Amino acid sequence: MSQPLLIEHDDGVDRVTLNRPDSLNALDPALIDALNVYFQDLQRNRDTRVVVLKGAGKNFCAGLDLKAAMARRAGQQEPPGVTESLDS
Questions:
Q1: Beta-bridge mates of residue 15
Q2: Each residue of 41-69: pLDDT tens digit?
Q3: What's residue 69's pLDDT?
Q4: Which of 2, 14, 16, 24 could form a disulfide with 62 if both were Cys (CB 3.0 to 4.6 A apart)?
Q5: Could you write out the three-class secondary structure of the chain?
Q6: How far apart are CA 32 and CA 61, in angstroms?
Q7: Those residues with Cβ within 8 angstroms of residue 29's Cβ, 6 or more apart along the chain or in another chain
Q8: Who contacts 36 (Cβ-Cβ below 8 Å, separation ≥6)?
Q9: For all residues of the chain together, what is the average pLDDT?
Q10: Parallel, antiparallel, or unpaired: how do β-strands 5-10 and 13-18 relate?
Q11: pTM of the entire structure?
């Protein structure tokens, strides 16, 4: 499985790519968790001055992944930390 979030650091600029092109970069728990971790780390990183957020493929982001959201609502298990990310 590929990483849901790709991050490139270059001279004060972070290029952050939502990497779920097959689902139009819809936000599932793994991607939400990865974004949450990235932005929490960014608060401690004084070297980054600019963040460029983009989507892999032809689309930026389709919004919330409804299949994943319905699975969460149905009570299926999620990886540790995902619930906290979705609730924050």
A1: 8, 52
A2: 999 989 999 999 999 999 999 999 998 88
A3: 83
A4: 24
A5: CCCCEEEEEECCEEEEEECCHHHCCCECHHHHHHHHHHHHHHHHCCCCCEEEEEECCCCCCCCECHHHHHHHHCCCCCCCCHHHHHHC
A6: 12
A7: 68, 72, 78, 79, 82, 85, 86
A8: 85, 88
A9: 88
A10: antiparallel
A11: 0.78
Q: Which two tokens stand for residue 18?
A: 């939502």
Q: Which two tokens stand for residue 66?
A: 């409804």
Could you give the domains of the chain?
Answer: 5-75 (3.30.300.220)
Torsion of CA 30, 1, 52, 67, to 10 degrees: -40
Q: Tokens in use for 13?
A: 């600029």
Quick one: CA torsion of 47, 12, 54, 81, rounded to 10 degrees?
A: -20
Longest dimension (CA), the chain: 44
